[in-house]
Specification:
20% of the residues are buried. Helix content is 21%, strand content 22%. It has one domain: HIT family, subunit A (2-Layer Sandwich), CATH 3.30.428.10. It is globular and about 35 Å long. A 5-stranded antiparallel β-sheet has the order 1-2-3-5-4, with helices on one face. It is built from 2 helices and 5 strands, in the order H-E-E-E-H-E-E.
Length: 112
Amino acid sequence: MDCLFCKIIAGEIPSAKVFENEWVYAFRDIAPQAPVHVLVIPKNHIASADGINPENSALVAKIFEAIPAIVKAEGLTNGYRVITNCGEDGCQSVKHLHFHVLGGKKLSENMA
């Protein structure tokens, strides 16, 4: 599989890791949109939110169980945003399910 994030998980491409466990890998975005911008991904490849199903949905739960530990370690005590992009119109640039955790400043209310 020629997936950028799978290669990062495998250690073939370097990343600034901030969290890892058996199911989840999190690292700093190379083009941050906020003072804190972490990508949180399942270690098993799922192409996008459209690929979530009963067989793999527990991985999404593992991601959302990891996010509180990540934001605590990043010092995001006043709030943060979690976003996933899906498909071309949703601006998904890497075809591996990932969640952007953004914070470290007051974020814009405008999402479009």
